[in-house]
Structure formats: structure tokens, C-alpha cells
Amino acid sequence: MTRSNETTLAHGGNHQGYTEKHTGAVNPPIYVSSTYHQQQLNQFGDYDYSRSGNPTRDQLEAAIAKLENGIAGFAFSSGMAAISSALLLLKSGDHIVITKDVYGGTFRFVTQLLTQFSIEHTFVDMTQQEEIEKAIQPNTKVIYMETPANPLLQITDIEQVVQLAKEHGCLTFLDNTFMTPLHQQPLDLGVDIVLHSATKFLSGHSDIVAGLAVTKKEDLATKLKFVQNTYGAILGAKDCYQLLQGMKTLEPRFSKSAATAEQLAAFFDSHDQIEQVYYPGLASHPGAEIHAKQSTSSGAVLSFKLKETVDAKQFVEKLSIPVFAVSLGAVESILSHPATMSHAAMPSTEREARGISDRLFRLSVGIENEEDLLQDFQQALSK
Amino acid sequence: MKHMETTLAQIGNRKDAHTGAVEAPVYFSTAYQHPSLGSSTGYDYTRTANPTREIVEEAIATLEHGTKGFACSSGMAAIQLVFSLFRQGDEIVITEDIYGGSYRLFQHFYESYNIKPVYAVPEQMEQHINENTKAIFIETPTNPLLLEIDIAQVAALAKKHGLLLIVDNTFYTPYLQQPLTEGADIVIHSATKYLGGHNDVLAGLVVAKGDELSERLTHLHNAMGAVLSPMDTMLLIRGMKTLSLRLEKQQENAQQLATFLEQLPQVEKVLYPGKGGMISFCVTDSALVAPFLAQLNVISFAESLGGVESFITYPTTQTHADIPEEERERRGISDKLLRFSVGVEHIEDLKHDIKQALGGEQA
């Protein structure tokens, strides 16, 4: 019987929860041990040193692999550690094509660190097939996507980019943080490596920093394992446990947040103090049809631009429910200001060219009562 | 048996044959799946038994030479567990000089359940024993006056009258004193102190000798439910591994400080039994206390004891505040008395801190 992801999530990726024969524990123990006693001189057991393998981390890695329909998962100490470890599969002289709407931290890594190793990049508008094709060079090894992208929620047609990549012999990486495997399964669409900042929806409680990578290809799994063990940016055992526990409520959290996000998007869309709303659930959103084809939810994140008549500082101060902070995907609603937060690592000229104005706000909708949130925004926008 | 340092350093090692994990895994699972109807892995619900908690319970039982150990959510929860062995009308003979929190709990047991604490100095204990007396409870060394009580002698008295002997071994720990080998029946610890040792976990431990007592306590431990959580158990195990190193260093510092304090003109009296890391001392004038505590830079003015950091406590207003004033004074806990839990800092830094705080730079 195939199980729905909801059931897999609730059981931490296991059949009937975690049950080891020895104790029957329904939750995995946290293996704090860094090292493992070996029984024989010549033959080591499954575990020898916790960087290379840890039973608690194994549980988490197996769970995300199953959820993403991959063959192997890898847990890292942050979303950036997952992204950077995956990008370090590249060699000097290689080139990547990357969406210009990429997360600011990824932008910083690609422009400042990959270039240090002579790994070059070209930023493209991932919604424009021709632009991507034009950017592909003989040494292009990876096309890197985020969809919906951050913070304007632009939609990339995953299958189309995968097709193009295959024609040119490139791999595709996709950051699936915004949709989670519940609502978008890129490996099924031909993507080679899926990446997550698990700090966001997967853990969902703003209480750990974590990253995940998944693949369904043997050779890539071997390489990712090598990088994970060699660079050592692994997720600690206690954080692995906390992440697994957070993932158990992903479905109800995400469903509630997405339902409220839809209501809020409609509210902002009809509000006279809002210039524009960015949300894949709005029919007017560019790429909304493509998104509906490759994903089963409009998501819990939306962005909106205030009209010039609104005092942005006052707007933020008047709000009493959302926390004004970086990050997203938590039980509490989080309002961010991309220009000074997630995209601050990007030069202002780059930022403006990408449409990230000072009047743009990103809202990660939490699980608070939807009426409370609506009323809070209503009063904050009233004069 | 192995030396105690070896047992301590390897608590939890080789407990997970499947992986060979050197440090014990931490089981947060509250429930355990049954293999089939009517069978159990030995773990059903974490209050009743938890694989991580078992490790610290086995360790303390081994260290204290007891039959079974019980990990509780605080030292007071451990004492409460042991006192739940008693019934209405029972009397317990208790040493006078005890921790104020225990005194408060015993008063509560008396007022609510008529389980009567009868306080006596060791030499006068026998005359307080009657047909209702069920146990003798001692702390040794006592708190805060640090008088050592001869456990074997009290054990003989208990045996003669068919009483249980309960010893609070918090101050010396099994590293310096093993009451069960001297005839005690139950040992209690505030593991928050020397056993944990880092002022980062609140915990209590009980060790019982003999199957009958162990079974009764197993039942009560589960029924009352003041068990130690898996995370705190892990921290306690981690702390216990270095108990011998810490206590050796604390004792060495304390021995030097006892001599140093005796020579200070502002110090009237030093109470130190010659071993362990606790010293009590009286200053010549209670007016010296407030400025002294305010001037300390290295030593913290804080309640609790047994950690790597040095603490000075003022029993009058802190640990023994729950004992009525006249009762306190009668017991010798004057307002000139300070209790010093010596840490593992460098001895010269500690001496210097005391000297400068007493205004001794000029003296």
C-alpha cells in the first residue's frame, strides 16, 4: 500500500512510528554519542563516528528521502550548509545558471564563494526559456531553481527547465523550501537534487536551524555523502530529533497557514492601500497556471507592496500579531522587509532591478486565527 | 569491583549493543510499542521506565553499593519519595542540623499527614525512639555546621530498634562516603549538587538496599511520578563522569581555604570536617556580611552548592530561612555564619577574592 505523505510525516518516516526491537520506543532516541564501540578489528559496524553516520540523523534522512520520493537524504546544519554542500559538487571551471530571484544567502554564496574557486555563474529570469538557453555554456553543469521564488513568488516551469537541462547535459537543483514535499515533488519531475531550509516549514517552530538535500540518483547520493562527511556540516543529533518532531505536524500547520494566506491575499488584493500582491493563488499572479500544474497548494507565503501613501514605518509599528523578523514557515506569522532583511546581502542596484523595493513586505502566514490576522492588517492599513 | 573513577567515567558506555554508541542514547519517547498482545519489551510508558533514566539509576546503585536506584525530578522529590514509605502516626528521628527545604517538607508531612519529625542530636536520638518510630534520617556532614555523624554507630542504633536508616549523602557523594556499606538502608542525593556539578540540572537520586525496599520504592516512584526527564538525565550522566576530578580539586582547594580563613582577623571560626568541598565560617561581626558579599568578584553569592563555580550562601536568609529564628539560633546558625561551596577555580584567585572582599587588602 502506498502511504500518503501525511501518514509518513506523522510517523516520522517509519511504519507505525519508530520502533526498535529492544525497547519499542515510538520516537527515536537521540544518539548523543560521537563515537561507537567496535566489536572487531577488521570489520566495523554501521556506525563508527557521528559525522559519518548517526542513528538519529539516519531517521531524519530516511524520512525526507521517502517524502521527496528520493533514494537518499542528507541533513545539514543549516539551509545554507545544504545548498553550499550541494554546490560544492562542482569543480573549478564549471558554470551554473541560477535564478536571479534566488534567496539572498544563496546569492552571496554563489557570487562571493563559488567565484573564489573559479566556479562561474549567470543569473537568469527562470520564467524565460530563451534567456536560460542563451545562458547555458559548454561548461554549465547545474541549473539552479527556486519556485515559488523569494520574495516575489515568481513561478518556474520545473519540467520545462528539466527538459532544457537534459538537452544540454546539465543537472538541476531546486530549492523546495516554500512548498515542502507535501505540495511539490521536484524529483518526480526530473530534478536531480532537492534542497530545503528545514528551518522553515519542515520544522515549523522557529526553534532550530537545519538544511536537507535529497536525490534519487545513486551517483549523486554517493557524491553528496562524500561532501557531507568531508566538509562535515552535519546536523547535530538533538536538532535532528527536534526536526523530526516538527515534521510530524507539517500537514496541519501548512494547511491552516495556506488557507489563511489565501484569505489574506484576497484581502490585500482588494485593499486600496496596497499597490500589488504577489501570491501564486491569485489568478492574476504570473505563472499561476504553471504553479497549479506542478504543485498542490498556493502556499503560505505572500508578498505585497504598500502604496506610497502608506507610511511603512507606522504600518509595521501598528501591527500587533505578526512578528517583524527574518525567516518564515513558522507557527507564528512573520512579516519581513526583504530590502533590509533576506536580500540585504544583495547590492541595492541588484535589488531594485529585481523589483525588491523598500515598500515590499513578505508575509509568512502562521497558524493564528485568520480573523485576528485580517483585523490586525485592516487596522494597520487604516489611516 | 572497578575503581570508582572508572565506573564514573564510563557511565552509559556499552549500553547500546546495536550501534556500539559510546555515550548512551537519550530516549525522549513517552510510549513504547508492544510486540504483541500481553507482551512488553520491558518499557511501556516513560514514567514507569525509560532506557536513559535506567542508566543513571543503575550507575548510582553501583556507586552506592545498593540494590536499586531511582532518579527523581529534584532532591526534594527524592526525599518525598522516601518519606512516602511512612504512614499517619509514624515518627522519624532526624538530626537537628539539616537543609531548610527538608525541614519545610517534614513540617508539611507532620501538619498534613501526622508523620512526625522528631529532631535530636545523635547522642540523644535513642531517648526519642518509641513504638511509633519507623526511621532515622541523617545528613552527614550536617548542613550548614558540617558536623560528621558516625553512620555505623547510628546504623547500630537503628538496627537495635528495627528502624530504617536514611542518609542524605549530598555533601560527600559516594566518592567520599558510602553509607549503605556502613549499615544505612537508603541513601538520598540532591544530584543537583556535586553529582551534576555544573549548576545546570535539577535532579534527585535515591538508592535502596534490599529487594523489599526496592520494590516498595519502585511502586511509589511510578505512582507519584516525580521522575527525572530524559534530557536532565543526560546532563546528569555527563556531569557525573567528572565527579572524581571535580571533587578532588574542590577538596584540595577547600583544605587550603580552611587554613587561610582561620588566619584572617575578620573570621571568628571555621567549620571544616577535613574532607569535601564545603566550608562554613563565622565572621567576627554580622555587619561584615553584607559588604563582604557585595564585594566578591570571583565567588558568586548564590544558593546551591557543589558546582564547578564557587558559591557563598548566607544560611540565615537563604537555605535555612524556613526554620524559625529562635530555632535557627538555638541550632547555632547565627547571622555571622556563611557557607562556602568551594569550586574548581585557582586557589590564589579564591584567596584573593575573599581577602579583598573582607577589606583585607589593607589589613
Set down the secondary structure blueprint.
The complex is a heterodimer of chains A (383) and B (363).
Chain A lengths: L4 H6 L44 H13 L4 E5 L2 H9 L7 E5 L4 H11 L5 E5 L4 H7 L4 E7 L11 H10 L3 E5 L4 H4 L9 E5 L13 E5 L2 H14 L5 H11 L2 H20 L4 E5 L9 H7 L6 E6 L5 H7 L4 E2 L9 E3 L11 H6 L6 E5 L5 H12 L2
Parallel strand pairs in A: 2-3, 2-4, 4-5, 5-6, 10-11
Antiparallel strand pairs in A: 1-7, 6-7, 8-9, 9-12, 11-12
Helix pairs in contact in A: 2-9, 3-4, 12-14
Chain B lengths: L3 H6 L41 H13 L4 E5 L2 H9 L7 E5 L4 H14 L2 E5 L12 E7 L11 H10 L3 E5 L4 H4 L9 E5 L13 E5 L2 H14 L5 H11 L2 H20 L4 E5 L6 E6 L5 H7 L4 E2 L9 E3 L11 H6 L6 E5 L5 H11 L6
Helix pairs in contact in B: 2-8, 10-12
What does this structure look like?
Chain A: Keywords: Aminotransferase, Transferase. Chain A: This is Aminotransferase class V-fold PLP-dependent enzyme. Chain B: It comes from Gracilibacillus pellucidus. Chain B: This is Methionine biosynthesis PLP-dependent protein. Chain A folds into 2 domains: 5-247, Type I PLP-dependent aspartate aminotransferase-like (Major domain) (Aspartate Aminotransferase, domain 2); 250-382, Alpha-Beta Complex (Aspartate Aminotransferase, domain 1), CATH 3.90.1150. Chain A is built from 14 helices and 12 strands. Chain A has helices at residues 5-10, 55-67, 79-87, 104-114, 129-135, 158-167, 180-183, 218-231, 237-247, 250-269, 288-294, 312-318, 348-353, 370-381; strands at residues 72-76, 95-99, 120-124, 140-146, 171-175, 193-197, 211-215, 274-278, 301-306, 323-324, 334-336, 360-364. In chain A, the strands form 2 sheets. In chain A, strands 1-7-6-5-4-2-3 form a 7-stranded mixed β-sheet, with helices on both faces. In chain A, strands 8-9-12-11-10 form a 5-stranded mixed β-sheet, with helices on one face. The N and C termini of chain A lie far apart (57 Å). In chain A, 52% of the residues are buried. With 363 residues, chain B is an alpha/beta fold. Chain B is built from 12 helices and 12 strands. A 7-stranded mixed β-sheet of chain B has the order 1-7-6-5-4-2-3, with helices on both faces. In chain B, strands 8-9-12-11-10 form a 5-stranded mixed β-sheet, with helices on one face. In chain B, helix 2 (51-63) packs parallel to helix 8 (230-240) and helix 10 packs across helix 12 (347-357). The longest helix of chain B is centred in the C-terminal third of the chain and has 20 residues, at 243-262. At the A-B interface, loops of A face loops of B.
